Amino acid sequence: MIGRRTLLTAATAVGITAVGGTAARSSAEAMERTSADASTPRALGTVNTDAAFAALNNAFLISNGGQRYYKTSLNNAEKDYFWRQALDIQAVQDVHDSAPRTETRDLVSRLLDTFLQQNRGSGGLYDWNWNEYNDDLLWAGLAFVRGHRITGNQTYLTQARYAFDRVYDRGWDNALGGGIWWDIRRADKNALSNSPAVILGCLIYEANGDRGYLDKARAVFDWVWARLLDRSTGGVYETMSADGSRSSGQTVYSAGAFVSAAQALYRNQGHGSLFDDAGRTVDWVIRDRTANGIMTNGQREGTWQSEFARGMGEFVRENNLWGQYYDFMKRNADAAWNARRTDLNLTWNRWDAQTPRDDTRAIEAIGAVIMQAVTPAGRP
Questions:
Q1: Residue 94 · residue 366 · CB < 8 Å
Q2: Distance of CA 125 to the CA centre of its chain
Q3: pLDDT in tens, 4-55
Q4: Residue 88: which residues within 8 A CB-CB, separation 6 or more?
Q5: Which of 234, 251, 256, 312 could bond to 280 as cystine, CB 3.0-4.6 Å?
Q6: CB 200 within 8 A of CB 160
Q7: In what order do the strands lie in the sheet with 67-73?
Q8: What does the pLDDT read at residue 3?
Q9: pLDDT on residue 1
Q10: Taking Cα atoms as reference points, which of 363, 373, 375 lies closest to residue 59?
């Protein structure tokens, strides 16, 4: 994801105890056992997953009293900004989902509790209305709904609902045929203020059974499908301006969010067209956004492969498509590891070139960790 804000122009975790969600501990453990029994296969993560995750934590994870958060870069100890911190937390959740462990579950709790403390608005601990960007609230909402799934803490689900409701209430209207505005200025509607809303709505529905969230998620997806998806290729356009003009740019991270959105709806609705939509976009990235079969980009201030690694991982895992896509996933996981700076085992967004020994950013380092976590060590 391009950095603020221009579109297209587990060593240290061990031993951490949860701040929030302790009352739900037995529930969370039961969910982990159920998840472990249900997935096919359950054992995810390359042999480099633990090393990549430990490297991320050693380089960026700050422990300050009861707080846990990721700093901005090696040389900048400030907390990563709102949306970037939410994506950092989701990387931890991807590692946990690959192999659920008490220490990663507890780290998720500490990170989410700290996020609330560090981003509280004038209305109190749970107020994010100060943040004018709808995609920011959606990334945070996703971190919290996934945190609820991992820990069982109902506060996290409540906050995820807050994020969805606030974004939908201030962002959705009938201009341009529907869709959610990027921010409160309402200059454009884009892929990242819409596809994540689909994912969040589906995950809330899965958590509480409220059909209204699923219906809204479907409406948002239909807008993306009609306005931003290139149905001939599977690419996803970045933005549609208020005058109806559409950007020409198509990125890997927007494609990844769309794949996750289509798969989330397919998981809940079972319509074959959704499966086809997800597969078409996965194939587009493989065909049109790789260099010699490797996803790579020189972006330093944001993500590139992260959302796609997660979305592809969900699509392949939940539909047992390893025979079709495993080689691509493993090739990219290996490329990301081989491109690391070997002094710190951190990898940037270029997976076809060595990571420089400079001021590596946390946000550019999470993609390689996620790619390791979603890829099995061997072909299932």
A1: no
A2: 23
A3: 333 332 333 333 322 333 333 333 443 443 333 333 344 799 999 999 999 9
A4: 60, 70, 80, 111, 362, 363, 366
A5: 234
A6: yes
A7: 61-64, 67-73, 76-79
A8: 44
A9: 57
A10: 363
Q: What is the secondary structure of 195-226 as a DSSP string?
A: HHHHHHHHHHHHHH--HHHHHHHHHHHHHHHH
User: Alpha helix (H) ranges present in the chain?
Assistant: 25-38, 49-60, 82-98, 102-118, 134-151, 154-171, 195-208, 211-227, 252-269, 272-288, 306-319, 322-338, 362-374
Q: Are 93 and 84 in contact, with CB atoms under 8 Å apart?
A: no
**41 Cβ partners below 8 Å, 6+ apart?**
376, 380
How many Cβ atoms from other residues are within 10 Å of residue 236's Cβ?
Answer: 30
Which of 139, 138, 134, 159 has the alpha carbon at shortest distance from 148?
159
Distance CA 354, CA 371 (A): 17
194-224: burial string, b at 16+ Cβ within 10 Å, e else: bbbbbbbbbbbbebbeeeebbebbbbbbebb
Q: Which of 222, 219, 253, 220 is nearest to 236 (CA)?
A: 253
Taking the model in full, what pTM does it have?
A: 0.90
Q: Return contacts of 117-124, CB within 8 angstroms, 24+ apart.
A: 117/67, 118/67, 118/69, 118/79, 118/85, 119/82, 119/85
Strand partners, 73: 76, 361
* 40 DSSP 8-state letter: S
Nearest to 290 by CA among 249, 323, 320, 331: 331
What is the rounded CA–CA span in Å between residue 352 and residue 364?
Answer: 14
pLDDT of the residue at 137: 98
Decide: helix, strand or coil at residue 133.
strand
pLDDT digit string, tens, across residues 305-334: 999 999 999 999 999 999 999 999 999 999
Local structure of residue 174 (DSSP, 8 states):
S
